[in-house]
Design a protein that fits this description.
Layout (H helix, E strand, L loop, with lengths): L9 E2 L6 E6 L4 H8 L1 H9 L9 E6 L2 E8 L13 H4 L5 E4 L5 H12 L14 E3 L5 H18 L7 H14 L3 E5 L1 H7 L1 H7 L7 E7 L6 E12 L8 H4 L7 H16 L4 E11 L11 E3 L5 E3 L7 H14 L4 E6 L3 H7 L5 E3 L3 H13 L5 E2 L17 E2 L8 H10 L8 E5 L3 E2 L9 E2 L4 H12 L8
Helix pairs in contact: 1-2, 4-5, 5-10, 7-8, 8-11, 10-15, 13-15
């Protein structure tokens, strides 16, 4: 058996189910009294302390009568429950005996049940959970994250530019949105830098456009870097650095997951989603070091390094989006290794010059258990991008502050009048943890969806 969406691990409300008790150390004495003497002695004799991720199956006349999950001393998060689908026995179904954290539990359960099973079945069927009423949004959120994870996990021979834009078209069709594809001569003329990045691949570059919402609603533009595989171009990556480059379209996957959540929630906004789908490959048509590329904005860019291609893709997307004068512009990209050196794999780097916007996004990340960390767009480093033959270089003259340099480059393509946030993400779990299996990860999607809801909850116009 394999799972295809979170609903596969959610049991009907009337399904026979065993009770799952979720408790921290402070509540353990009360639970021991509630369970009865036999089960209390069983837990005490087994040394159960309700530590985080500690769990026990309670025996009963027919085998198992209940389970107890320890939450530890800290406040619960979705990850408190994320290990249960594969920890509890296969074929079992459970209901929450402790409803206080129902939404967190359902979200964590669904995220923890995910495995990428396109080419091999999962290790075993996950246990199922009866979702309490009022937790439907958690299942919807998990479904969007599953689809983003699927896209990131897909190998590059399966997911190229054509397949990535097809995913955008499928999302548009599923939600009554308007989808279109820009390719060929139109792409070369309107998105020249992006086109140059993809010119070295036999799989032609494309831009996918999704538009949704009422015309009088505030416009939110989302731009995603969709480099389906990044060899580094003629500035070839070493093999170790190339190994995970199927995930270099992670920014595109994230904006698609975010768009799905916004449309499912019927937030009172109008969406413009742009995905730049390219492959940075090597051939006689590949762009070269020290080439000078024209951009949609009319800014000429000297190519200091062909492996800094994501910012060239985003430059044209951001220009296109900014021409629409959105109320909010967000881009997501697996842009720099420097962001990972600074913050590690779990904290996406947030860049914005708008302090109030930064706080809304950071607060949303804390509330959604989907954290980010703000890094500065330090103008003092802007001159590091100077070029003596073009308007700007795509890399710095100094080997420092790489994530900031990426943000400074992108800032040149966004008007200061537009509220803009740039996210430099990893989009990957290096190892499996509860709720976060190894592989592609939908980082920052839940935070951004909550932030958009906060920013536009009082916006005029009907919900679509």
């Amino acid at each position: 058996m394999t799972t295809t969406n979170p609903n596969d691990v959610i049991a009907p409300a009337d399904a026979p189910a065993l009770p799952l008790h979720c408790i921290g150390p402070d509540g353990l004495p009360t639970l021991l009294e509630t369970l009865g003497p036999d089960h209390a002695r069983f837990l005490v004799a087994g040394g159960f302390t309700a530590a985080a991720q500690e769990w026990r199956l309670l025996p009963g006349g027919d085998g198992i009568s209940a389970a107890v999950l320890g939450l530890g001393d800290a406040a619960p998060t979705p990850w408190s429950f994320g290990g249960l689908p594969f920890a509890l026995p296969a074929g079992t179904t459970w209901r929450l005996a402790t409803p206080a954290w129902a939404e967190l539990a359902v979200l964590g359960w669904c995220l923890g049940a995910y495995r990428y099973t396109r080419f091999r079945p999962g290790p075993r069927p996950p246990a199922k959970l009866v979702a309490p009423p009022g937790t439907e949004s958690a299942i919807i959120t998990a479904a969007a994250c599953w689809r983003a994870r699927d896209l990131i996990n897909a190998p590059a021979n399966i997911l190229g530019p054509a397949e990535l834009v097809a995913a955008v078209e499928a999302l548009a069709a599923a939600h009554g949105a308007r989808g279109s594809i820009i390719a060929g001569t139109e792409l070369a003329e309107g998105f020249p830098a992006l086109h140059a990045v993809g010119a070295g691949s036999p799989r032609a570059p494309k831009v996918a456009v999704l538009e949704w919402g009422e015309t009088d609603a505030p416009l939110v533009a989302l731009c995603g870097k969709g480099v389906c595989f990044d060899t580094g171009g003629l500035d070839l990556k070493p093999s170790a650095a190339m190994l995970r480059m199927k995930k270099d379209m992670g920014g595109a996957a994230l904006v698609l997951g975010l768009a799905e959540m916004v449309m499912q929630a019927r937030l009172p906004v109008r969406l413009l989603v742009l995905v730049g789908a390219v492959e940075n490959a090597i051939s006689g048509d590949a762009f070269r070091p020290l080439d000078v590329l024209r951009t949609r904005a009319g800014i000429n860019v000297e190519v200091g390094n062909t492996d800094a291609e994501g910012r060239l893709v985003l430059a044209d997307l951001l220009t296109f989006a900014a021409e629409r004068e959105p109320a909010l512009l967000i881009d997501c990209a697996t842009l720099t290794g420097a962001a990972r050196v600074a913050l590690g794999p779990d904290l996406p780097a947030l860049f914005t010059s708008d302090d109030s916007l930064a706080e809304v996004i950071l607060a949303a990340g804390r509330e959604a258990h989907d954290p980010l960390w703000r890094l500065p767009i330090h103008s003092g480093y802007d001159s590091w991008l100077d070029s003596y033959v073009a308007d700007v270089n795509n890399v710095a003259s100094k080997p420092m502050a790489g994530a900031i340099i990426g943000a400074l480059f992108l800032r040149r393509f966004v008007s200061q009048k537009i509220r803009w946030a740039h996210l430099d993400v990893y989009a990957w779990n290096d190892a499996s943890r509860p709720g976060r299996p190894e592989g592609g990860e939908a980082q920052a999607v839940r935070a951004l969806a909550r932030a958009i809801g906060t920013l536009f909850e009082a916006a005029p116009g009907p919900r679509r």
